Fold this protein.
Amino acid sequence: MTSVEPRTSPVKSWLVAARLFAVLTVATVVLLFGTAGVLVQQNEALDLHGTGALLLHVTSGLLTLTLAFLAWRGAVSWIGAVVAGVLLLLSLVQASLGSADSLNLHVPGAFVITAMAVGLAVWLFARRTKAD
């Protein structure tokens, strides 16, 4: 007799992907904070900070897409996709405020982005979804 392994539903796979993108987004924010400190104190790591900003655009964009798909399938609330989309937009605005002249806006923006990224990760891992 052959044994048949149960297949993972596509929604479950998308949920795993969303959780992965949420973790990568938080990890990117941590990288950005580390490089920002070096950049401000030693005027170094600008290239790494810029690369981190690009990574933040990519990870938050992919998070937005996966959450939108999950919301469209009814597995999660649309609130998550909206928050991730706002996070992506704020990261783009944040990148435009990265000069020394606008640090008074860049630093508070970093805290808002951090709160949103961590909040989305906690939201995705803490609650049961229809895909679990």
Summary: The chain has a mean pLDDT of 87. Helices lie at 10-42, 46-72, 78-96, 103-126.
